[in-house]
Input
Amino acid sequence: AQSVSQHNHHVILSEAASLELGCNYSYGGTVNLFWYVQYPGQHLQLLLKYFSGDPLVKGIKGFEAEFIKSKFSFNLRKPSVQWSDTAEYFCASTNFGNEKLTFGTGTRLTIIP
Amino acid sequence: NAGVTQTPKFRVLKTGQSMTLLCAQDMNHEYMYWYRQDPGMGLRLIHYSVGEGTTAKGEVPDGYNVSRLKKQNFLLGLESAAPSQTSVYFCASSYSRRGGSYNEQFFGPGTRLTVL
Output
């Protein structure tokens, strides 16, 4: 069965700091990868997704993620975070032809003004 | 275009009571999903549907039933609620696969359920 690991459970940063959240997936075949964000009290929204092609994917709000197949990783990055980035971030994967997403346990990000 | 909506937003039940959560989408999506979100466990798939009249079990289906009588609606039922079902429930929908690529899931606002 697929699994997605997010090793950072809670990250606290100051505004303008750089961010990198880790995500590792287990499936060895063709994989689709996603990062979702959940702002306090809101539903999940898609930040970015990777299907194929350029392994560096750019999403909304200045976020990007890099797919590194050899490391089974899809880490999320942002060069300079803002207070409004305070949220919970979920990495998710699905393998080709599968309708179901497998989510990681999430990383809570707190930005200190 | 409302996207994915869920009713109710909040509910408190006593152990043994039953209830139905309603999810509706107006995007003509084929696939619909029910998840539960618990602290430290991320989102776990309860049941899903790949089309009207079809449903399938997800990762944590026990204690829940679902129905997809209309394409736009996906109902989640709890026949006899238990405290372990206290959670936030999210519905999601997505297009069917096109050309082999996977389409993103769109999520509803969630239902916070407490079982006493």
Chain A has one domain: 4-112. The first strand of chain A starts at residue 4 and ends at 5.
